[in-house]
Amino acid sequence: MKKILFIVISALLVFAACKSRKADVPKDTDVFYTCSMDPQIMESKPGKCPICHMELTAVKKSNSEEMDGIQLSEQQIQLGNIRTDTIKDGTIGDQMTLSATLNIDESKINIVSARVAGRIDKLYYKNIGDHITKGSRLFDLYSEELNNAKQEYISVLERQRTLDNSIIDFTQLAQAAKNKLLLWGMNEAQITELATTKKYVALTSFYSTASGTITTLDVKEGDYVTEGGSVVHLADLSVLWAEAQVYASQLSLIDQKGDAVVQIPDMPGKEIKGRIDFENPEISPDTRINLIRVTIPNYNNQLKPGMPAYVTLKSRQHHSLSLPVDAVIRDAKGASVWVRTGKNNFENRMVETGLEADESIEIKSGLQEGDIVVISGAYLLNSEYIFKKGADPMAGMKM
After folding, report:
1. Rounded to an integer, what is the distance from CA 229 to the centroid of its chain?
2. How many CB atoms are located within 10 Å of the residue 344 CB?
3. Pair (306, 331) in one structural domain
4. What sequence ranges are listed for the domain CusB-like barrel-sandwich hybrid (predicted)?
5. CB 375 within 8 A of CB 311
6. Rg of the Cα atoms in the chain
7. How far apart are CA 254 and CA 263, in angstroms?
């Protein structure tokens, strides 16, 4: 009996000793070690940063912080100038400003083409950007077909002069030969000179049928052109298009009959009034972006295609939640805001944004009326979150 009692007492002493040794090993799970230069480093024990080799700093986790939240002290809030405001339902709209680019009015592009096949012997305008007035000598062409037609016309005129009393109506033959020359691009003055001198030259000059600036030169001297082949593209730059991109969600807010004002950043103070005259009927499925076009006059050709511009459109006001633009943090993952969930506690939330107007931005989803949102210091909160938790608060979040 004594032997059994001794064994039981020994076992109890061993168990107590083991329990005592476990209790002697403190383990603080609320502390981790990070680097002030590389906050993504998070270690469970002290040491040096594997990136910059600085001593790691102990940081205590706050049990009150949520997964996507952060807690700040009163001093941090004051130093970071973190201010909040309660989001309310209000109106946003009245006008919308879009980024745009000035482009050539494609409805005012004229193509000067060869009326007959031949070889370009000489070009009188050889540079993109040269301005050509209607009637200017454009190029000289050598054409066997045209030269044969010239000889035919001279021959008919000679026979008409000598055999005018015959039964053959040379007047109609002469008119038919002349019409062929007109069809192949010769003008009345050239034909009259040919009929007067009864001599022709191998090269025929052709003149521009329109005024404009050269945007495309399709031939060079020595090239052969076919009948109808393009020689030069001329653009009338007295009118330009201001083409702006607009998101599909904003289309319903645009007044198609409203006024538009185009501003040119390269010309401060210059504003040009116009109206929307085209909206692309097809929306890009990848970007969800549509194109609208405003036609504007180009007085004295001061504006150049390719210039950046801003298009301000009158839009209809509507009720919506809105915040100051600086309250919203935007990157490739989307948009988010910081919401106060307690006295000094803040939580990051993804939001869907809409219209921007007058330094305000529409919040379409992600918040509700009455939420207290950080309107100043949101980026500082973001940085503090990354420092403490070593991750972007928007990483892995979904709307």
Report:
1. 35
2. 16
3. no
4. 110-233
5. no
6. 40
7. 18
Count Cα atoms within 13 angstroms, Cβ side, for 354. 19
The three-state secondary structure class of 113 is strand
- The verdict on 228 and 118 lying in the same domain is yes
What pTM was computed for the model? 0.54
Which residue's entry shows tokens 């459109």?
313
Domain count for the chain: 4
In 38-57, which positions are buried (b, 16+ CB within 10 angstroms) versus exposed (e)? ebebeeeeeeebeeeeeebe
Measured CA to CA in angstroms, residue 325 lies from 88, 95, 230, 322 at distances of 15, 16, 51, 9
Whether pLDDT at 101 is above 50? yes
Collect all residues with Cβ–Cβ distance below 8 Å to 205 and sequence separation of at least 6. 137, 139, 140, 141, 190
144-160: per-residue pLDDT in tens? 999 999 999 999 888 88
Q: Is the residue at 159 inside a domain?
A: yes
Tens-place pLDDT, residues 41-73:
777 788 888 888 888 877 665 544 445 678 887
| CA-to-CA dists, residue 264 to 243, 246, 278, 279, angstroms | 13, 18, 20, 21
Domain end call among 197, 217, 235 = 235
* Residue 387 zone, left/alpha/beta (φ > 0; ψ -120 to 50; rest): alpha
For residue 297, is it within any domain? Answer: yes
In the structure, what pLDDT confidence band is assigned to residue 315 with cuts at 50, 70 and 90? low
